[in-house]
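From: lab user (bench 3)
To: helpdesk
Subject: output format question, protein + NAI

Hello, I'm new to running complex predictions and I'm not sure whether the block I got back is the full result or only part of it. Here's what I submitted:
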Amino acid sequence: MAHHVTLIPGDGIGTEITAATLHVLEATGVDFDWDRVEVGEVSLAAGGEVLPEAVFDSIRRTGVALKGPVGTPIGSGHRSVNVTIRRKLDLYACLRPVKNIPGIETPFDGVDLAIVRENTEGLYSGIEHMVTEDVAESLKIITRKGSTRIARFAFEHAQKRGIGKVTAVHKANIMKISDGLFLECVRKVREEFPGVDYEEMIVDNCAMQLVRWPRQFGVLVMNNLYGDILSDLTAGLVGGLGVSPGANIGADQAVFEPIHGTAPDIAGKGWANPTAMLLSAALLLEHLGEDDAASRLRSSLERVLGAREVRTRDLGGEASTMEFAEAVAKAIKQ
Ligand code: NAI
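Helpdesk reply: Thanks, we reran it on our side. This is the complete output you should expect:
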């Protein structure tokens, strides 16, 4: 039976890497029934809204989506489509696995960690206002419910994947009440998982530790802003934004998407690396119970990258987005 999945190509390079990903998914032989919905600039250009209600109707119906990046205007303009989808569907856990990929040279081998970022509160609650003409205030919301469920997600992920350690990342030395509550909740959840080691680390030290000794980490759990920043940092450890996948997971729905944005500097040129979206699609396949297809997709991708013949410009090659996807699709069928 075909898997009914919402498809949100997004804008910028989103449409290019989505076409590439669909081509590769077709080669896996898994049957999909895509419910395609447009958002962002693409939807606006077609006379629609930035974030039509149809997107939520579709994801509520299918329970799962594959999504490309969507641009957000800086400073003014509409609210982030990405943040709104995550908050409205209560996709509270952002999972970003970070692992070396054969053929991509980086300063470190053996990096295998996961960032678990709280996705719905913290400084991204969107509660901002001017107090006076010269003073702006932005509220950081940390709740017992939000912190407890993200902690449980992190420990369950560690347990399920056989990862030995969870690190809670915080700044409770300065934000004693908000990050203090976060830590209190993680410590409580930790008692349910005696088989998983636990440590706490202040976020600035953690940034340094990650670029000096990344192999010490397993699962890192943290609130929204720290997770946003550190997951780009950890993407850099294994080859950059073009190769780093992600998933936003809630109790009832999940949205799989690369961690990078719309890359306006290369959009429309056919240069984008679809690897991050392909690895996000592999996470989606696992979520759908298609473990065999997920592992064939990953190993074919690794074979193509490992052969160092066909690669996109961000990795020093000359292949176009579709040429790279074609090579991966061919490897899957071999
Ligand atoms: P970005 O991730 O779009 O680009 C940063 C740099 O990485 C650029 O040099 C870009 O060319 C490169 N890059 C990113 N993805 C690549 C790929 N697949 N292949 C090759 N190179 C790639 O970040 P930026 O410029 O900060 O954001 C651009 C827009 O994207 C903004 O409007 C931002 O709000 C949005 N954005 C959307 C996200 C989402 O939809 N989940 C996530 C992050 C940003």
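A quick orientation on your result: The domain at 107-237 is CATH 3.40.718.10 (Isopropylmalate Dehydrogenase). Let us know if anything else is unclear.
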